[in-house]
Amino acid sequence: xxxxxxxxxxxxxLPLSAQVPQLTDKQMAACKRERNRxxxxxxxxxxxxxxxxxxxxxxxxxxxxxxxxxxxxxxxPWAIPNKVNRCTYSNGTTEQWCFDKxxxxxxxxxxxxxxxx
Length: 117
Prior knowledge:
Elements lengths: L3 H15 L6 H12 L3 H15 L15 H5 L8 E7 L2 E8 L3 E6 L2 E6 L1
Antiparallel strand pairs: 1-2, 2-3, 3-4
């Protein structure tokens, strides 16, 4: 009458799926809020982007020092790259940050190695 696979499904898999607890509407809303919450760093970055779009600042390489971390560079008022090219190798990661007016910054493992303007 029944195929053995169907019988196996009806006796084992189906009861397991019926035991999965369902979230209440309140729990679902809490999960959605948590998923959509932004970190303080994201909020800070978004504010900088909005300010930069309103008042663009030309890149000034005089503010740079070899050995700065990418976090130190991104805190500069003009340091919002138009594009980031990232390559990951077995010995680390290299990044090229591209800015307006043909300014490029080169990072290796998060440390500024050189720039080109």
